[in-house]
């Protein structure tokens, strides 16, 4: 009985939080629409969310591409297909690893920082002070961050994929001596702009929407204590990571005929 009661309690808590998150999303979308004419706020958040995350994206992308090329070469050479190494690296990055890895890194770096920032604003009653001064926090705080997160995510995903492809080239050409023309021409022939590139962009936009939604909600809903903000930050990273991986499967199945 205790197990059933606990499962019921957790189910009620989950449904309650999901409903609160959906209501928060509606308010965030409205706040985003109201702040579109305040470009300075959006640019400030693009710098904080996107530019400051670029170093992690570039370094990670470089090593991911190098490892992918290293592993791919040893597999392809067994079938005398090493000339397709560039195509393999590009398809893996553009279709799958680029959007997913950039979203996970975005959630770990920018997402946790945003949750902690908004949680601390709530703990120090800055949000309450805005409401007292007739300033809508959704328009002033949440909206610009929401818009910036959705814009930044596809750009970061494209950067990670591009750097990874360059990293793969460094290994393919520098370590294994693969001809540069062969590496790049295989991508030109095999990568489809719609089925591969566009689908990757769609994935990154969806991931950005999911991550920024979870991030801002957890910060706004955090218990206004140091422990509450810490728990909200942890929930942001865990929930975002699971949501990214789950939605990636659904999107991949929809895009490539799995359903």
Short summary:
By secondary structure, the chain is mainly alpha-helical.
Would you kindly provide a written description of the structure presented here, covering whatever features stand out?
This protein has helices at residues 2-34, 39-49, 54-76, 85-123, 126-132, 137-175, 180-190, 193-220, 226-255. The model has no long low-confidence stretch (mean pLDDT 87). 85% of the residues lie in helices and 0% in strands. By secondary structure, it is mostly helical. It is elongated and about 65 Å long. The chain has one domain (2-255).
In DSSP terms (H or I, runs of 4 or more residues), the helix count works out at: 9
Helical amount among residues, as a percent range? over 70%
Described by the principal axes of the CA atoms, the overall outline is elongated
Largest sheet: none
Counting DSSP E segments of at least 2 residues, the number of strands comes to: 0
Order of helices and strands: HHHHHHHHH
Structure class: mainly alpha
Unreliable sequence segments: none
Number of domains: 1
* Average residue-wise pLDDT: 87
- Measured between the Cα atoms of the first and last residue, the distance is 38 Å
Our Rg estimate from Cα atoms comes to: 21 Å
Amount of beta strand:
under 5%
């Amino acid at each position: 009985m205790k197990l059933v009661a606990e499962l019921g309690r957790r189910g009620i808590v989950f449904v309650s939080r999901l409903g609160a998150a959906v209501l928060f999303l509606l308010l965030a979308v409205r706040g985003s629409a109201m702040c579109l004419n305040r470009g300075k706020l959006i640019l400030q958040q693009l710098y904080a969310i996107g530019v400051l995350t670029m170093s992690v994206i570039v370094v990670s992308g470089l090593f991911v591409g190098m490892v992918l090329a290293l592993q791919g070469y040893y597999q392809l050479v067994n079938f005398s297909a090493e000339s397709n190494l560039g195509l393999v690296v590009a398809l893996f990055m553009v279709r799958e690893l680029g959007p997913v890895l950039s979203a996970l890194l975005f959630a770990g770096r920018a997402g946790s920082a945003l949750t902690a920032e908004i949680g601390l604003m709530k703990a120090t009653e800055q949000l309450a002070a805005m409401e007292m001064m007739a300033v809508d926090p959704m328009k002033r705080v949440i909206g610009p961050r929401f818009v910036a997160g959705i814009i930044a995510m596809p750009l970061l995903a494209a950067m990670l994929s591009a750097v990874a492809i360059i990293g793969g080239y460094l290994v393919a050409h520098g370590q294994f001596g693969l001809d540069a023309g062969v590496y790049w021409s295989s991508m030109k022939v095999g990568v489809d702009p719609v089925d591969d590139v566009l689908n990757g962009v769609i994935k990154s936009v969806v991931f950005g929407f999911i991550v920024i939604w979870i991030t801002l909600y957890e910060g706004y809903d955090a218990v206004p204590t140091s422990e509450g903000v810490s728990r909200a930050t942890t929930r942001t990273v865990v929930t975002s990571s699971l949501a990214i991986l789950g939605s990636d499967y659904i999107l991949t199945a929809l895009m490539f005929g799995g359903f």
